[in-house]
Amino acid sequence: MADHIGVRMCTFFLLFFFVTPNQCMQCHFGCTCFAATNTVRCDSKDLRAVPLSIPGYARTLIVTGNNIPQIGPDSFPELENVTNICLSNNRITELGSHTFSSMVSLRSLDLSGNPLALIHPEALSIPGGPLLELNLSRALYNSTSLTDLTTAMRWGGLAGLVLLDLSGNRLALLAPAAFSRLPSLRHLLLPHNSLASVRSGAFAGPRRLELLDLSHNAFRAFPAEALGELGRLGKARVRLGGNPYLCSCESRRFAAWLDSSAAPRVEDAEDVRCASPRELRDAPLSGVGARAVGCGVPVRGVPAGEASLQTSYALLGLVLGFVGMVSVLVLYLNRKGMKRWVAETREACRDALAGYHYRYEIDTDPRRGPPSDGDGDITLIGTGGSMRCVYSLCGPARRDSHNPT
């Protein structure tokens, strides 16, 4: 009995001295460790780097509100057991290459609230691709960051990613096939950005998308191309509320799409409301009819856009016809004055042409000689063997020595 108790005590001490130090490392100064929930929190401690002394039992690591300019592969050594990590609001500007490569069990990564200016192409690369959730809300510093993220998503081996949050990043445009390497994506969150259009192929790639959030962006309308792209989402739920929609003739197609059974289910249809014109502000877009938006009733067999274009051409023709009639009426009432003006113009043209003809005859007279170097323009004209000098500038005539008076 004593031998059995001695063996058990020996085993206990061996486990305590050799196993416990590795699995129950002392909590880092400034952090709080919760062994019961396998959680370590380091909140607002003005840390300059991610703590290295993380207990081995930790499954969730929360480091927020600090001042950590950059993180790399050296920031997370021996954290292969961590499944959830939150690094929000740490002023992180750079993600180094293979930053999370040692975290082979990582399932959820939160980088929200960081001004990420540089994301290396392989920053999100983890062997085995275990990552399921990626939160990058309010995390992209500028458009270059979006380009870096697109490259990182293509090279990072994120084929198993299920949730991607890109809300609040001032995104103005989605590149075609930006999510093509995320075939397992089910939740794509893009609210509170500046998106104004959806291009063809923008959501190509995810085959099992369940939720697409486009609420609170800058959409004013959804043309046929955008509706076709949304229609390819199948039975996915879509959020479109909070956008400044313009309720006009072109909105009728979108309103019909909202009510059609072929469209994805719009979860916040009651929030899809008109922002302009003023008389329709805050009115549900799905209930806006043709007359409410100032459009004529569409002609049967003619699309609404073509009918509107034909109406514009008709109005232009009426305006031009009216202007032509007024011009003809003005000319008729002033016909006497027009005749007098034409006669005066004709006489003036005759006088001008006669003057030009007279000057031409004088300039081409063969009897004119070259001008002299005297005070005036003198021309010598010979008549019957005698010479007579005259001023060509209508001066008085003089006799020369050969023809005295």
UniProtKB/TrEMBL annotation:
<keyword id="KW-0433">Leucine-rich repeat</keyword>
<dbReference type="GO" id="GO:0005886">
    <property type="term" value="C:plasma membrane"/>
</dbReference>
<protein>
    <submittedName>
        <fullName>Trophoblast glycoprotein 1a</fullName>
    </submittedName>
</protein>
<dbReference type="InterPro" id="IPR000483">
    <property type="entry name" value="Cys-rich_flank_reg_C"/>
</dbReference>
<feature type="domain" description="LRRNT">
    <location>
        <begin position="26"/>
        <end position="60"/>
    </location>
</feature>
<keyword id="KW-0472">Membrane</keyword>
<dbReference type="InterPro" id="IPR050541">
    <property type="entry name" value="LRR_TM_domain-containing"/>
</dbReference>
<dbReference type="InterPro" id="IPR003591">
    <property type="entry name" value="Leu-rich_rpt_typical-subtyp"/>
</dbReference>
<dbReference type="InterPro" id="IPR001611">
    <property type="entry name" value="Leu-rich_rpt"/>
</dbReference>
<keyword id="KW-1133">Transmembrane helix</keyword>
<feature type="domain" description="LRRCT">
    <location>
        <begin position="243"/>
        <end position="296"/>
    </location>
</feature>
<feature type="signal peptide">
    <location>
        <begin position="1"/>
        <end position="24"/>
    </location>
</feature>
<dbReference type="Pfam" id="PF13855">
    <property type="entry name" value="LRR_8"/>
</dbReference>
<keyword id="KW-0677">Repeat</keyword>
<dbReference type="InterPro" id="IPR000372">
    <property type="entry name" value="LRRNT"/>
</dbReference>
<feature type="transmembrane region" description="Helical">
    <location>
        <begin position="313"/>
        <end position="333"/>
    </location>
</feature>
<keyword id="KW-0812">Transmembrane</keyword>
<keyword id="KW-0732">Signal</keyword>
<dbReference type="InterPro" id="IPR032675">
    <property type="entry name" value="LRR_dom_sf"/>
</dbReference>
